Amino acid sequence: MSGTDAIPEFPKRSAADGADVSLTNMSALTSGPGVRSLWEVAAIAAVAVLIIGGAEFLLRFFQVPHYVLPPPSTIFMALITEFPHIAPHLGHTLVELLAGFAIGASIGLVMAAVITQVPFLEKIIAPYILLLVTTPMLALVPLLILRLGFGYEPRIVAVALAAGPMVMINAATGFRRVDSAKIALARSYGASTLQIFWKIRAPMALPMILVGLMIGAIFGLLTAVGAEMVGGGFGLGNRLTTYSSMIQMPQFFAVVLILSILGILIYMLFFLIGKKWASWEA
Amino acid sequence: MNAVDAKPVKLAVRSATKVYRTASGDLLALDRCNLEIGRNEIVSVVGPSGCGKTTLLWSMSGLHSLTQGEILLDGQALTGPHPDIGLVFQEANLLPWRDLDANIRFPFEIKGQTPDNEWIDHLLHRVGLGGFGGKYPRELSGGMQQRASIVRALSLKPSVLLMDEPFGALDSFTREEMNRLVEEIWLDTPTTIVFITHSIEEAIFLSDRVVVLSPRPGRVQAEYEVPFPRPRSLEIMATKEVFDLTNAIKREIVGSRKRAGETVREVQHAS
């Protein structure tokens, strides 16, 4: 084609680029702070040292009593020495979290998938879902304990009640993303409703489902610990009330530290899953 | 090459009428539209925006049902999506969570068939995407995405290819490249192609026949034979014949728009 050179280049309008990615923003999951250079690593480490070291220095310099706020080194030592005693409680909390989350998330996912298929049903149910999302499920724990005793059961139910609606509203947002062209594509090859669900709707919803699972898991953790603080003799929440009542502040903060790490691990887990399975949207 | 009259009719639109029910009343998109497309003919449909071009094409694909009238494929009335009809959408419409290979094998997955790997590889190389199978759509340019979507549409070896403004979102240079590619593929494996476009130049370059649709409700208002031999070079686009033809089609569209200004567009449709 010798005429190619003579063709003038017209202004580009490439609407095709990125046309699929504008619906939701996965930034919470997939575009977290990525470390770019050695300089950044050094800066991050320096700030961490400054904050922790600064806290250590100030607390010691002003001789702040341990029952107000122990210095970081004391908390860290307490974490190491007390860990064998805390570990079983960590196990209890994890059991409650995993069981409650599994139940709540499954129900939330199924309900999201079902109600979004029936817009009328969704309109009817929406206010109640909102109520479930906005009501702190911790408020129900005393009642649950009355009905279910001081074992795992009330806590698992509370975690499920906290996580389920969070998973559900986010997943529903995902399932509501109707891309008629993609559905038409599947239909043009004779796809069944079920195939359209599994091959178009579900993958399209996946980024929002992951966001929902992450938020649900973190709310589940909060609720599990809160429920443990209300009643029952075990779990990290119980440790918090026990240590604080005995003014064992280094141990208290060691448990807080464990909870922080747990929360970060949950975030990282879903961050990595999102990176692997939903990075197409980032 | 252009002996259209001698070709048997592959796809026929018979008195196609389509009414959309909207909140503000019924909308007559197509009104007794008639069109015949010969086997292995390339026909472009042009017309003012909103004239029902896309409605017509989607009806021909079996995805939209007509309010009245029928679509005949090889003389048989079309009742729904048909394996013999391939669709190329506006923009590439690839599934962003699948790499190219998985996108192109999507039709086979839906149909539960084993993909024809040899044919797919041939097509991928044909459109210059050999070795790109592991790439995700977002890693490719708009032109490459649209080429992949053409491969997907051709992967099941349809005898009819319906293309709905496939290159509208591409820059003009890429667009001309794509037009040549469509012609090359057509010369390789002749297929009946119906091509919706806003670009009269694109329509003339590609087609054996250009059909002008009237403003809504859409009907065939005029047809133009495009008598140039294939393969067509881009030089042909600079000739006086093409210039005159382009102007004739433009006048037809502009004229029809003026007339349409006096008619009522939204009608209360009884049936």
From TrEMBL, chain A:
Superkingdom per UniProt: Bacteria
Listed transmembrane segments: 41-62, 74-91, 97-116, 128-150, 156-175, 205-231, 251-273
UniProt keyword annotation of Transmembrane helix present: yes
Organism: Chelativorans petroleitrophicus
Similarity remark: Belongs to the binding-protein-dependent transport system permease family.
Principal location listed in the UniProt entry: membrane
ABC transmembrane type-1 domain mapped to chain residues: 90-274
GO BP: transmembrane transport
UniProt signal peptide: none
Cell compartments where the protein resides: Cell membrane
UniProt cross-references to InterPro entries, sorted A to Z: MetI-like, MetI-like_sf, RhesusRHD
A Pfam cross-reference name: BPD_transp_1
Membrane topology: Multi-pass membrane protein
SUPFAM superfamilies assigned to the protein according to its UniProt record, in alphabetical order: MetI-like
Name the UniProt record assigns to this protein: ABC transporter permease subunit
GO cellular component terms, A-Z: plasma membrane
Keywords of the record: Cell membrane, Membrane, Transmembrane, Transmembrane helix, Transport
TrEMBL record, chain B:
Database matches in PROSITE patterns: ABC_TRANSPORTER_1 (PS00211), ABC_TRANSPORTER_2 (PS50893)
Claim: GTP-binding is one of the keywords in the record: no
UniProtKB keywords: ATP-binding, Nucleotide-binding, Transport
Stretches assigned to the ABC transporter domain: 11-240
Annotated InterPro entries: AAA+_ATPase (IPR003593), ABC_transporter-like_ATP-bd (IPR003439), ABC_transporter-like_CS (IPR017871), ABC_transporter_ATP-bind (IPR050166), P-loop_NTPase (IPR027417)
Gene Ontology MF: a single term: ATP binding
Membrane-spanning intervals of the chain: none
Keyword hit for ATP-binding: yes
Gene3D superfamilies: P-loop containing nucleotide triphosphate hydrolases
Superkingdom of origin organism: Bacteria
PANTHER family attached to this UniProt entry: ALIPHATIC SULFONATES IMPORT ATP-BINDING PROTEIN SSUB, TAURINE IMPORT ATP-BINDING PROTEIN-RELATED
Family from the record: Belongs to the ABC transporter superfamily.
Name the UniProt record assigns to this protein: ABC transporter ATP-binding protein
Gene source species: Chelativorans petroleitrophicus
